[in-house]
Design goal:
The complex is a heterodimer of chains A (321) and B (505).
Chain A lengths: L5 H20 L6 H10 L1 H15 L7 H18 L4 H25 L4 H19 L4 E2 L3 H7 L2 E3 L5 E3 H19 L1 H11 L1 H6 L4 H27 L1 E2 L7 H11 L11 H21 L5 H30 L1
Antiparallel strand pairs in A: 1-4, 2-3
Helix pairs in contact in A: 1-13, 2-8, 2-13, 3-8, 3-9, 3-11, 3-12, 3-13, 4-5, 4-6, 4-11, 5-6, 5-11, 8-9, 9-11, 12-13, 13-14
Chain B lengths: L2 E10 L2 E11 L3 E6 L6 H9 L6 E6 L2 E2 L5 H7 L1 E4 L11 H6 L5 E2 L2 E2 L1 H12 L17 H15 L3 E5 L7 H16 L3 E5 L3 H7 L2 E6 L2 E7 L5 H9 L5 H4 L13 E10 L3 E9 L3 E5 L6 H8 L7 E6 L2 E2 L5 H6 L2 E4 L3 H5 L6 H13 L7 H14 L16 H15 L3 E5 L7 H16 L3 E5 L3 H7 L2 E6 L2 E7 L5 H9 L3 H5 L3
Helix pairs in contact in B: 5-6, 8-18, 13-14, 13-15
Classes of the chains: A mainly alpha (321), B alpha/beta (505).
Chain lengths: 321, 505
Amino acid sequence: MNPRLFPLAATIGIFLLACLICVIQFPYMLSTRVVGNLLTDNAYLGIVAVGMTVVILSGGIDLSVGSVIAFSGVFIAVMLRDTGLHPIIVFALLLVVSTSFGAGMGWLIHALAMPPFIVTLAGMFLARGAAYMLTIDSVPINHVFYDLLDDAYVLMPGKGRLTLIGVVMLLTVAVGMIVTHRTRFGASVFALGGGEAAARLMGVKVGRTTVLIYAFSGLMAGLSGIVFSVYTSSGYPLATVGTELTAIAAVVIGGTLLTGGAGFVFGTLIGVLTMGLIQTYIVFDGSLSSWWTKIIIGLLLLAFILLQKGLLRVTVSKAGA
Amino acid sequence: MLLTITSLTKTFPGTKALDGVDFDLAAGEVHALLGENGAGKSTLIKCLTGAYERNEGLITLEGQTISPRSTSEAQALGIGTVYQEVNLLPNLTVAQNLTFGNEPRRFGMVDRRAQRRQAEEMLDGYRLDIDVSRDLSAYSVAIRQIIAIARAVALSGKVLILDEPTASLDAREVETLFAVVRRLRKKGLGIVFVSHFLDQVFDLSDRVTVLRNGKKVITERTADLDRVQLIEHMLGRALKDDVVGHAKAHQAGREWPELLKFEGYGRRGHIAPFDLSVGKGEVLGLAGLLGSGRTESAELMFGLAPAHSGAARDADGTLDLSSPRAAIAAGFGFAPEERKEDGIIADLSVRENIALAMQARRGWARPVPRAEQLRLAEDYIEKLDIRTSGPEQPIGDLSGGNQQKVVLARWLAMNPRFLILDEPTRGIDVGAHAEILRLIRQVTAEGMSILVISSELDELIAVADRVIVVRDRHHVAELTGPEITTDTIVRAIAAPDRETAEVPA
């Protein structure tokens, strides 16, 4: 097997193992209701993690996304409250704003040759601050269109609900897979992650690609914000604090190399679902404290970092032989 | 001629990297470009590939004047380059690497099957039996080099520049690579071959051009040259008498009291175990071609790369040279070859650069008082005649020769017993050159021992009491007294390789 597939195989293996453990302990977990909830509850995380995957594949990081999601929710709620605009127009406006925001960060990273960590850290504070400027309260969303979105689901056999936002997440993952693995842009992302000097020699337009990468992440964060606002029916400037780190964790557990250049968008989906599954297990158990989720995610992360390090050593020694 | 370069000049602040260099390349020819570090090889290549813009001169390709501004522009013109490393992306598949930027697409998506087919077509004729859908990292460096060549040829197709392509290959892999290069030559490509392996140059090239200090020394048919001549051109007589001064009176049989002794000192992959004794007040010279193990020997002695075998002794017993810190404690000093990168801290002042090693020895808890630093700096500025506006001027603003004097001052302030100077006169103007040689003579007269590494044979002859010749990472000869002449050194360097020597002709 291609060694590049090992982390993905490990991710899938761990996910299946987790499923098995859950089902053995709580046979009721094997139902379409759980599946439906898993997709719905993690839809916003899955979407933002797709953007994060692209960023990390290029060797970068985007710390701003959690704040951008919160800003998006507040932006939508305030716009719907204070203007008569239709939600679809508000969504479109928001996506333009969040995408431009990401593109701006990408431009700064390239033009000033600044580490993405610092630039997106500044973006994180900026977006959170902008959300506070709009309102400091939780703003409920009452709009007929939102009721429509909330009620949009397909009843699966077994009474599980496949909601619209769950489907949006799955579609986003599919689009992310195509963009990353089947386009020239995707190839440039991998090239940047493999090494900027070599990428430049191969003819990658580094500046353009960097701007596009962070713009894509901004777009995903905006979309995730829309989904989150549908999920919570409100906008709150203090929401989704730390979500950027959860997304990074999902990407790494999904088998993407944190230093860039190797990974799969599909793995990120599995990473998100694994984390969701742990959460569900704890809910089913009822007696476990929710911080066990954090501990297990921490252990999984550590395991994956070790796996990647070991893998790197294997490939290096093989190339040296 | 396919490619003609006339009186190419490229200057950087303070140095003239290329000075009126002529070069030409015919279709169906392998033209080797030779020279030591800093001779101007890479500058010439960078002017060709668009990484640098030339100051003066003309480059014509098939009769058209060209001025490429980027690698991709040079590629589009027909000039492709394969470097020693960093050519391709190991995290992509072979097919992705080969077709990068020209991927076949269907409905806006990369068509994987067509991509594989296209990659296989590009590799057709290179006699590689590899699976193009595997990661590049699955293959050896030699195969990666051939893939890089295939990509460069497919994209450019007129001129192929090979910049030290064999540096990390073994003999069999080199042969595979050369077979590819020969086939490409037959197809009519013009190939520029940069290498410091002379055997490979004789094996592969039709003509040779030697650069030295940014100037062209000769262009000659390879068949009309022998090794001795070639090495003489690379290292030989270039210094004027006023630089060298009166040559050292080499007396036979002069003895120095022994200061240090290295026994069986070596490190796998760097330098084979060697024995070396250093006399008090003696100037040792280390001669050899680039990559022969000159610098490696110095790094080993200074603890930059700890020895795997052997021991170093002085009169009091075994010395610990496991790290530069330990070596400094043992009274060693080292002025490295890459002065700008390893020798100076450009943003710090002359005073701070001089006080650096002394401060390091005292530890951070006991800072050298500012007044003492200043006194030290002023002292050496005067003693070594460092041309600076004052002790507080950033060292990066000084000329190469004056920077080197500051590095020397740093070590002299420590009063080491054994000082290693790696290419101390590289990139230094003529006046400073002579001063540094004078300084070496002066401090050794006061009892310090010095090891000088140099690619200028004249320089070694002028200062060294004993010359060690390094070849293929072995110390192969030791010349003393009247034996030290350009001729004997060149002959020792040029002696046939051990492998060929063992095989009866």
